[in-house]
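Protein modeling request. Please complete all fields; requests missing the sequence field cannot be processed.
Requester role: graduate student
Desired output: 3D structure, token encoding
Chains: 1
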Amino acid sequence: MNILFFQQKNLVIYPYIDLKHLRTLDIYAYGYNIIDIDSTALQDLKSLIEYEVDQGYSQSPNFYYIYNIDTKGIKEIMEIERSDKVRCVINTNAREIPKEILEAADSKFIFYNKKQNHFLNLNGEAKDLGFERDLISGSNDIDILADSLQRIKSLGTRIFKHLNETGKLTDISSILGKYKPEYWPKILKYTSLFYDLVIPEIPLNESRDSQTTSSKSTSRKDFSEEYDVIVGKKSISKEFINLLCNYRNEQVNQQNLDLSEIYEPKKFYNYLRNHHWKSGIPEDKFLFKWVDILKSKKTPVLGYEMDLREVFEQLHLPTTAIDYFLSEDEESQDDDLDVKNPLPIEALTLPKSVISKPKDIGSEENEGRMEKRINEIIDQVNEYLDAIMRAIDKLPDIEHH
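Delivered output (401 residues):
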């Protein structure tokens, strides 16, 4: 299971084993298109496999059972240019594997002596088999074990699609929450190997057990409500989350984080509030940057300033950043607003050329001119009203009697 499924390696078994027993390994090749190849029936097996590999990526790549092959044929398969893309189980009638073949074998080909029940070149790669033992002990028969591996493959597909859509892993516990956190890296590694996908390295100390994680979480305060208040404001939440991720990469030692704290912004926010931000979100390292990013957007989201002030008020955050950055906008708007010279009222009247001749009022030409002018007047009225409202907003200290 570890070699074929989780590590996605190839297995060379010797001496002879019949095909029926060989095919019991099918459950570890879930997601592949299985092909049986009797090497004695083919002239150039290497070229055939090379051609299939060169066809490119497929969601159901080929998995080969190759049998009745000699050691020379094994060496040729290992020499395929893209042998790292080959997935197979090979059975040879040879009673010994020549030393030069073992020396030439890369880590993708593992040799197994069936008679001696011994791996020739495993090199201790499968020391941590706790997950595999749990899967086997929890399965009463081969069908249940197959279902368990199929479920892991389905989770891998979800992770693959999620990364393709978002470019990052978020809310990882909602995908892998059924399994112990110390098993998550193995599932993620399987996913990266099967889909040829780069997944960020996970600095998870596997010596932690779930009880330690649980006791650690119960000793912390929960700041999830704060996080929900912020991300509940769609006009400002995206920039907050992106800045939070940047802060994690630049300011925090990720060796101190749990896997979920790395990939789930809410849990990372809770980590910060319990460790780095005990006194609140820092102004200089975060709040000023957040407000500046929002202000500098080419097309600010409508209402973001109001949402920002509301969040700051609810969380009792200092408004220095808002007052500093957004006051600049208000000053610049003064130059554009001239309330001493409002639009002339004459501009809101229809021209005499339109209304002076009632007999022409129904003509298509005149109707078109009227409709165009009316639309222009509506736009001018709206601009005039906006100017008045901005002027009123600038006079907060004036009392009206």
